[in-house]
Write a structure and sequence with these properties.
It is built from four helices and 27 strands. By secondary structure, the chain is an alpha+beta fold. The strands form seven sheets. It has a five-stranded antiparallel β-sheet with strand order 1-10-9-8-7. GO terms for molecular function: DNA binding.
Length: about 450
């Protein structure tokens, strides 16, 4: 009654916000989290900790060269080496559903609620599927030139090296998820400039190698680690367990349908599996040997979703999921020419008529030799542009590069003040001119 001066739209918006707040309060997230935590800890009677290496106190001191000690000879500058985290003990994540409780447990619970409320609110909006939004070359170039990086849009979101990222498709708020090498997932509301803009959760034991917001319900964030595929459901404040591997083999996944109910999962040992979220239990529906020694990425065709492309070792092949069997699978098509290890392969976003791969053979005269301290590059298509892709770079000054499918370099995102590291993992917003790059220290850069 006290808002008669507002327009009809503003009154409706205020009413929605009020109802959402009541709904969120009714969920009693922290009470549910406490119950789930009690269940989880009850299932695991003791906490397994990573063992510290024993100190060899009586071991004879051996001479080590300056090269092994990473000490530069006099007068020669050291090459840039990312800081490596010290080994530390931390509790293992149990199997089964996990409460959506941040790393610091119940501290700053209000800040955590703010982040989760934002995620829930922007997920309630009916998101129209981004279709053919191709721009002519000059307009696309102008949009790239207009994107910039500021100090407030650089933030350390996870503790260790970024291994995967996902960006929420909301057109109102920039909301990013990042997974690191230790199993942490950080959620960052880029538009929020307060202390609680980013919160960290630990739903995995190993590196989070692949993440996607569900295209059907963006209140769900699916994340994959070596041993498990989980779905973070903000409406219930729980990380559900969808599939578990006893061999710690999972490498990547992608949805096989628009409802995100089925997925194809790649394995480090070369196999692929098909998972159906609608069936009970945490086992896959089908395991198939596709003849690979290693499968690093899998990606489903954007139009004909029975096809998926797998990449690993020197192999890049397309398969038809309808004809997968346990052994003896033949590819529909093989993309030859790679002479060294392939890091990724993805279909173009609109038609799927193109495939971009990243290989250690440095094609496009592009330096892909990241070494062992950096996450390997993955070239990703701009969802808004059928023939342009984004990839990290080893060039100095540090930058993120945009290429056309012809090999032409269209643009280099760089900033001498706020980007001084290699961004191996990048993600592009499906409808807005937003690019996020993640580095080896857990820091995200938003252009």
């Amino acid at each position: 009654d006290g808002h008669s001066q507002l327009s009809a739209y503003e009154r409706k918006r205020l009413k929605n916000i009020t109802e959402n707040a009541k709904f969120f309060a009714a969920l009693k997230l922290h009470e549910s989290a406490a119950r789930l935590q009690q269940i989880a800890t009850g299932r695991q009677s003791h906490v397994t900790k990573r063992a510290k290496p024993k100190k060899a106190e009586d071991e004879t001191v051996r001479r080590r060269s300056m090269r092994l000690q990473r000490v530069a000879p006099p007068g020669i500058p050291m090459l840039e080496m990312p800081a490596q985290p010290e080994a530390e003990e931390y509790p293992r994540v149990p199997a089964g559903p996990l409460p959506m409780v941040p790393e610091d447990q119940m501290e700053n619970s209000k800040l955590t609620e703010d982040v989760l409320t934002t995620w829930m609110r922007i997920s309630e909006v009916l998101l129209a599927k981004v279709t053919n939004v191709l721009m002519i070359s000059s307009r696309y170039q102008d949009s790239l030139n207009s994107m910039a990086l500021s100090e407030e849009n650089v933030k350390k979101v996870v503790r260790y090296r970024v291994c995967s990222m996902a960006i929420h498709p909301s057109e109102s708020i920039v909301f990013v998820a990042a997974g690191d090498k230790s199993g942490q997932i950080g959620l960052w509301n880029v538009d929020c400039k307060s202390e609680g803009a980013a919160r960290v959760f630990i739903p995995h034991n190993y590196q989070v190698s692949c993440m996607h917001f569900s295209p059907f319900n963006p209140a769900h964030l699916l994340s994959l680690s070596n041993d498990t595929l989980r779905c973070g459901d903000v409406t219930r404040a729980v990380f559900d367990e969808i599939c578990r591997s006893g061999e710690e083999n999972f490498s990547s996944f992608d949805f096989l349908d628009g409802n995100a109910s089925t997925a194809v999962v790649g394995h480090w040992d070369g196999d692929v599996t098909v998972v159906d979220r609608r069936t009970p239990g945490t086992s896959s529906e089908l395991s198939a040997d596709i003849g690979f020694k290693r499968t690093r990425t899998v990606h489903v065709h954007p139009v004909n979703k029975q096809y998926f492309i797998a990449a690993g070792s020197v192999d890049v092949c397309i398969y038809d999921v309808r004809y997968l069997k346990s052994k003896g699978n033949k590819p529909v098509s093989s993309l030859k020419g790679h002479t060294k290890s392939v890091a990724s392969a993805y279909f173009s976003p609109v038609t799927g008529n193109r495939v971009v791969t990243v290989c250690a053979d440095d094609k496009l005269r592009h330096n892909n030799n990241t070494g062992c301290w950096l996450t390997r590059f993955r070239a990703i298509w701009d969802p808004k542009q059928e023939d342009c892709f984004v990839v990290g770079s080893m060039a100095r000054p540090r930058q993120i590069e945009v290429f056309q499918d012809t090999g032409k370099l269209l643009h280099s995102f760089c900033n001498l003040d706020y980007l001084g590291s290699v961004c191996s993992i990048n993600v592009v917003h499906p409808s807005r001119n937003i690019l996020v790059g993640g580095n080896s220290c857990g820091r995200l850069h938003v252009f």
